[in-house]
What we know:
By secondary structure, the protein is mainly beta. The protein has one domain (2-140). Helix content is 15%, strand content 46%. It has 1 helix and 9 strands, in the order αβββββββββ. It has one helix at residues 2-22; strands spanning 36-40, 47-50, 61-64, 68-71, 74-86, 99-110, 113-124, 127-135, 139-140. The protein has an 8-stranded antiparallel β-barrel with strand order 1-2-8-7-6-5-4-3. Strand 3 (61-64) and strand 4 form a beta hairpin. The longest helix is centred in the first third of the chain and has 21 residues, at 2-22.
Amino acid sequence: MTRALLTGIAALFLATLATTARTGTPVMLNNKEIIGEWCASKADTELFFSSKSREDCGAGALNIQINGIEGWEHGCQYTAVKTWYDPTIPTATKTPTGALVSRIEMICTGEGYTWRERVTVHLGKGFLSYKSNWRSKAKRVK
């Protein structure tokens, strides 16, 4: 019962955020558990682990902020964010399943190019899952 109530409140909040995004107000990420510094896993390019320092990561650094993402030699600003609860994602061993998932659409720039990208991000079992769903062709910045 409580979970259903919280899910309903979250859905109302997200609908308000989507409306705000269309009115020209800056788009913000509301999934607080994924905000922070992350390092790419050497075993899987879509998995990241938490980091205290960007220097520990080298080229695999990813900094997720409330209004954008910074990576190695590129930065992205959110244009749309949709967050929902997925009850099938295991978040830890021997605990109930379920995690917040965010689909983020953004405009990115880096190394003299600009492009649009859509990613899906969630936290599960201590790792950040960061999957690029779509990316436009990069255009040279003039």
